[in-house]
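# nightly structure sweep
# worker-07 picked up a monomer target from the shared queue
# config: single-sequence mode, recycle default, output format = structure tokens
# input follows
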Amino acid sequence: MLYRGEEISIKLKKTFDKAFLGDAPSQVKIGNCYYNGEGVKQDYKKAVYWYSLAAKQDNKEAQFRLGICYKNGQGIKQNYQKAHDWLKQAAISGDALAQFHLGILYELGLGAEKNINEAIKWYKPSARQDYADAQFKLATLYNQSKDIPQDAVMSAYWYAQLAEKGYPEAQTYLGDFFKAGYGVEKDYKKAVYWYCKAAQNNYPKAQLALGECYELGQGVNQDYKGAVYWYAQAARNSYADGEFALAVCYFYGKGVEKDYENAASLFIKAAQKGHIPAQCNAAYCFQHGIGVEKNYAEAARWYYEAAKKKDALAQLKLSYLYENGLGVTKNISKAVFFIQKSAENGNVEAQYQLGLRFLKGEGVAKDIKAAKKWITAAAVRKHLEALNLLRQLQLEKKKNKRV
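# output follows
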């Protein structure tokens, strides 16, 4: 019907009448209709108009909704300060959503100075009113924030509130806490219980975690087939860690018949998602023709992807390919570059090999001091050849002194 020159649904006429007479709840309802496009054409500016009228009458829902419009720039120019002011009025009045969004502003430093403790101050009353987003914020901040002291007990408490409501991410975190004894007493069976809850809700991280429990016999009898089942569920959800874990099972024949083709295929799928160990393993399969046709160029490609992310083993393997011109143009400088990166990133074999290069002057200028540095680094980590070579160098030094 046409009402004051505007097309509206018949059901809204009485609400409009009350709103024009100054009834705040009706003004909020009309604002919501314009905000959501229900019974009228969606119009954020008109929503802001009606929210403003009700907000000035201290209607906490209107204050909250007006604060959100200022926060998001909907129907009015974005203004975090005004968003903060309106949300705070509603928050003080006890509105759980306003308390949560006010906490967000303090956490991010929008419209007010960044203050994690102030954010928590507002998340808490929202969480106590059973608002799930606020509960998750508290659980996460107490678990992961670098701005406040971590509190495992409080984190576990809020994850438990959410877990009981059926939130799979919280159930998985709670399972992790029971598995590690973090904030709760260590209990593998309770960990499995919560992983099961989340896994049955098709949450891939929980499916992976449950598979690991079956593989290691934690909270359940060790069962490789059970592990494969849950890894497969995670892999079906395109979860890279699940694909990798399942690939390892196929590669070694754990809980399933050994199948290199399936293993290689899964390594590649996970590698394409940026999974570093999968990139290394996919490269290894291509390098040696395991489950795929041998292809040094593909091996080099995947080693390089992992090497870019500072994976020391991939850097060592890539060095070998450049040294021998396999899949790449032979380049000793690049071989040395990647073996040095690998050594610097802690690969013990690379440390030993780099030490040898400096000792013999292969691809680098001969440098006895640098050679001893890297050979010693490998020897300290019990690298047998490095230990033997270091002893030999020490003996030669003593002989030279006697002479």
